[in-house]
Predict the 3D structure of the following.
Amino acid sequence: MDNTYIIIIAAVIAVIAAIVGLLVGRSITQKSNSEIEAKAQEEVQKKLADAKTTADKLIADAQRQAENTKKDKMLEAKENFLQLKAKHEAEVTERNKKVIDKEAQVKQLQTEASQRASEAAKKEKEIEVIKDNLAKQLEQVNTKNEQLKKSHEIFVSKLEQISGLTKEDAKKELVETMTKEAEAQALGLTKTLIDEAKSKANKEAKKIVIQTIQRTAAENAIENTVSVFNLDSDEQKGQIIGREGRNIRALEAATGCEFVVDDTPEAIIISGYDPIRREIARLSLQRLVTDGRIHPARIEEVVVKTKKQLEEHILEIGERTIIDLGIQGMHQELVRYIGRMRFRSSYGQNLLQHSREVANLCATMASELGLNPKLAKRAGLLHDIGKVPDEESELSHALLGAKLCEKYGEHPAIVNAVGAHHDEMEMKYVISPIIQACDAISGARPGARREIMEGYLQRLKDLEALAQAFDGVEKAYAIQAGRELRVIVESDKVDDKQSEDISFAISQKIEKEMTYPGQVKVTVIREKRSVSVAR
């Protein structure tokens, strides 16, 4: 490396000298007289001498630096060698120490293994001794078993001789006797338990229902939907009809109801399927008659305002209802549906009044049964919510109500109770049959629903005649306001299986041929009586 450095310096000096010579040569060629040429040569000789002196000096300096660098590198290499040697010796010492430790551990493990081997040999000898003892004891046991077996065979043989039965016959007879006794006892115990359970359940159920009805008293008055609008005088009829009937046509177009103006004094009949539309028509006509300005443009304006005010009134009715019942956290749409119940009736029974009554009955019955009364009251209020939809649906009111309750975040138990209160869904929660029972109680109580007496009596007669048309039916009685049909069949002609078939067939025929509110329970009774007289 030092020789290379010297060669590079010499090459640099040679290049400098060549450049100086080239410059001097070029300057010499430009001179035209000999004096300049001579002078230039002297200067060149002088510069060459200076350059040589400088080069010699540089070379000497380079050699000195090379020597110094060489010495430094030698010292540095020796130091590195000494450091590596010391590190290597330390590593060797560490490894030797680890080897010594491992050897000590191995010796210790060997010692422990030897001890364990000696202990195992000792235990093996003990086990051999125990094994020999057990073999001797087993041999004694086998000998005693053989003796016992021979004794048992002698005993069984003597017993068979005495009893005259073989062992298998005696076992079979004993098993049959015990089986019959066990079956008889089990049947008796089962019947006793079932009778006690039925008796207790019927008593408790009757008690709860009676207490519930007594505690939740309701008025028997029936609220009819008003469809007649009274006038102060018959002169107002002409103003309502308008020129060529334009006012009354505008009223019918705006409200969707029919206005019947006939010879009835001081009255106009408002006819319409939707009770809310009929209420809008009544309120609009009342406002128009009071104001006195009746013309098509005014009619449309009043009907729009009335619709808006009625919607607010409906919401107010719903909010007041849930406040009265102590129900909280209900969705606004369900509250609006509750308000709409106020203008809907079923068999003459106001739907909102019916729902409130069912809610109170459910809460009372749930309390008697130790269930959640708030949940039951909420389900009772919402059970007929499917009867007041905004749009007509193909679903039944129970299934539609369950769908609405689920949509607006009601509890799954409430959804199931609403959908199952007419047995259109499977009952999955305890409150579902409570809702069904309270709905029946509210609808069946005296005065709850309006029905013409002749139609009521005719429906009962039709029910009885329908049942008596079946073969084997002796008598039929419609009871509980037509909600139950009890059929007595001739026991000689109809067996138990046929009575079940007759009950099912009658219920199917009632569904197909008759129109009735709620449900009709068909009970077929088959009774065999044997009467003897002792004289």
